[in-house]
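Journal club side-thread
Mid-discussion, someone asked how the predicted structure for our own chain would compare to the paper's figures. Pasting it here so we can look after the session.
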Amino acid sequence: MSATTNETPATASAYRRVLLKISGEALMGEQNYGIDVNVAHSVAEELKAVHQLGVQVAVVVGGGNIFRGVSKSAGNMDRSSADYIGMLATVMNAVVLQDALEKTGVDTRVLSAVDIPELAESFIRRRAVRHLEKGRIVIFAAGTGNPYFTTDSAAALRALEIKADIILKATKVEGVYSADPVSDATAELFEEITYQQVLERQLRVMDASAISLCMDNNLPIVVFNMRTAGNIQRVVMGQPGIGTRVSLGKSA
């Protein structure tokens, strides 16, 4: 298939429109800081494969690989100032990912919640939807544009605004566990779990504000391992056994 596949029906996909949440750390690769352009290229290739299914794809990217408002690097800075710096970091990541996507032949637009016209378009909901309808991948940068809100909250908000069918939360583990699988070998991997259980058990899926927003609007989330090649496409195609589904339904 060619890269310009916006006319292709999404017959092989379980979803019409998805929002992928990628952490800034995911773009570091094996580095301790910054952006690994090879990782950005790999992510771009996977997003291209999903795009070629005819799926409308939006992305929210974090900035933790460069700067995070609530981190040691922020020191004793004013929280609002630190969070705004973190927003700028997400713009940097978004532009890198845009460049990687466009090198694969996929039209991409970066929409920022903070006005930086030289780098990105300003976020306007109808404009974002129109870009998606025209077959462009849309990357949302600068979070919600407000301090004290994480990019998880931005992902939930943007997904609802564009009427996405699902949020795909890319992580470095297989899904949602009952405990930290790195430190607890007995941690159980859930196939499905409810929003309420996530909140009650304080599981690290997304922050509480994002989970509550998804729960109030019945927006499902799939948490999966992005480090396994092809997993983004597998999740979009609805293949069983990939990641953990968070919804209103009963857990497995």
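Post-session note: Residues 17-247 form a domain with the Carbamate kinase fold (CATH 3.40.1160.10).
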